[in-house]
Structures are given as C-alpha cells and as structure tokens.
Specification:
The chain has 1 helix and 5 strands; from the N terminus they run βββαββ. The protein is mainly β. A 5-stranded mixed β-barrel has the order 1-2-3-5-4. The N and C termini lie far apart (30 Å). 12% of the residues are buried. The mean pLDDT is 92.
Length: 74
C-alpha cells in the first residue's frame, strides 16, 4: 500500500478504550464512528489524546471501520 492510497479525515474523540485505542466520530459524515489507534510517532513522543479532542486520522480505502490517529488539533 502506497502513501497515496490513504484517506485523510478529521474527527472528534468520543470514547477512550484500553491500549491507546479510541472511538472517533468523523466530521464529514453524519453518524459514522470508527475505531482508531495512535500512530507510532504519537506513541513515541507520548502525545496525550483525551475525550473531546479534535484529531486528524488516516484510513485505508479497504477497511473503512479502522483508522490511525496522526495528529491532535488544538
């Protein structure tokens, strides 16, 4: 899978699950919630994500139920 194949979206964290997994509600879709995990750099530099944070995430076009959080927005 190439870097060009990912979908970049924004959303809001609605639920915090164990092991750095989050449930995120997407901004551009009405009631679509997906399960996301933190990317490697966010784990490495211990960037905290809490309930209600706006985040940027990446999804593959193959599985639209899972994603990876790449950035926390202010």
């Amino acid at each position: 899978m190439a870097k060009e194949d990912v979908l970049e979206l924004t959303g809001v964290v609605t639920e915090v699950l164990p092991n750095a997994v989050f449930r995120v509600k997407l901004d551009n879709m009405d009631d679509k919630e997906i399960t996301c995990h933190l990317s490697g750099k966010m784990r490495k530099f211990t960037i905290k994500v809490i309930l209600g944070d706006a985040v940027e995430l990446e999804m593959t076009p193959y599985d639209l139920t899972k994603g990876r959080i790449t950035r926390r927005n202010k």
